Amino acid sequence: MKTLFFSIWAVLLILSTDVAALKYDLIVDQFSPLPVLSYVDGSAAFEQVFNPSYFPPSPGTGGVEGLLIRTQNCSAKVGGPCVQCGGSPSTASILTYARLLNGAPLPVLASSVVFSPDPNEPLEAYGTEDPRVAYDNTTGIYYMFYTCYGHAAGQQASSVLLCLATTRNPTCPDGWTRHGPVFPREQNSKSAALLLRDHGPHYLFWGAGEIRVTTSNDPATWANIGDVLIAPRKTMFDSAGVESGPPPLRLASGDYLFIYNSWDLGWPHSQDPSSGYHPAYVILNGSNPSQILQRADTPFLLPATAWEQGVYPYSCNVARVVFVEAAIPLGGDRFRIFFGGSDAVIGSAIIRITTTAD
């Protein structure tokens, strides 16, 4: 009987250890001290290149991987005031493509434009902004969620709506199919990161101010706006707002790393060097991605360099911004991220997730 009792106790101990909660930490392993794409440095033909999204290689791209980049051309002086380049027919955001070779983007050229406002669609009249891309390897389709900035037909009031376009080859301006607004009645909807699952439902994490999550069996159709998943925390670094980053990233544990962007109540007027737009993260349950297992207490990057702050020797679009929209799995819970700096340049870093038994 004692032997049986000991055996049962040992099994229970092993099982309790196996299911013990994990504590996750994010470590920045490498940080590129200079922008990887910048007009000032000569690697971009446009004055503002920022907020990139990653697309993986596929047969449709001929095995090429790269970045889709929000791009504008507002005149800005090195060391001068921030230009706050807003959307208009003459300064509308377009999307350019930069091929990645060995983890580094090739220069953005005048010929790199792959997506721009449809002249027959007033909802895009002021820009196509902030792409986030997910690839379905079962169908060969890339899903790009982006912001349609413009106005409704026959109206002057500006409109901001989350939109969707699909393609089999994001390196080419031909072949895009526009699906229109994702939530046509939700003004100021934007910033959507798609988690594609092997079998439905799929998950869409979207929003700026607060982040909602909704589900669908069809990645092109979303029947409802879902529920709030991540909200600002009034006494924390994300006190003013939160905004989706890149699509959630699968970890070795089976859970997901979901990077989000945030800003504090003091930004942009506070002189506190920690005040700004900065990325943080949550860990999502691998079995139920609408459940948060852990949320960061601090941002993992701050706008510390001249090009993130928007000061000399760089130009500035919006001051003190680090904004992550692209992440590439490198294996071993390591990821290369690309991010906008001061809404004018693109930076890069490698991050790593570690786990310990909690």
Structural notes for this entry:
The protein is built from two helices and 22 strands. It is mostly beta strands and 358 residues long. Strands 2, 3, 4, 5 and 6 form a five-stranded antiparallel β-sheet that branches. Strand 20 (322-331) and strand 21 form a beta hairpin.
Q: Main traits of this protein?
A:
five-stranded antiparallel sheet; disordered N terminus; 358 residues; mainly beta; 22 strands
**How large is the share of residues in beta strands?**
35-45%
Helical content stands at under 10%
Order of helices and strands: HEEEEEEEEEEEEEEEEEEEHEEE
Instruction: Characterize the main sheet.
Output: 5 strands, antiparallel
Short summary:
This protein has 358 residues and is mainly β.
Describe the secondary-structure layout.
Layout: H1 2-18, E1 22-31, E2 48-55, E3 66-72, E4 94-101, E5 104-105, E6 113-115, E7 127-136, E8 141-151, E9 158-167, E10 177-181, E11 192-195, E12 202-206, E13 211-216, E14 227-230, E15 241-244, E16 249-250, E17 256-263, E18 277-284, E19 292-295, H2 306-309, E20 322-331, E21 334-341, E22 345-357
Antiparallel strand pairs: 1-22, 2-3, 3-4, 4-5, 4-6, 7-8, 8-9, 9-10, 11-12, 12-13, 13-14, 15-17, 16-17, 17-18, 18-19, 20-21, 21-22
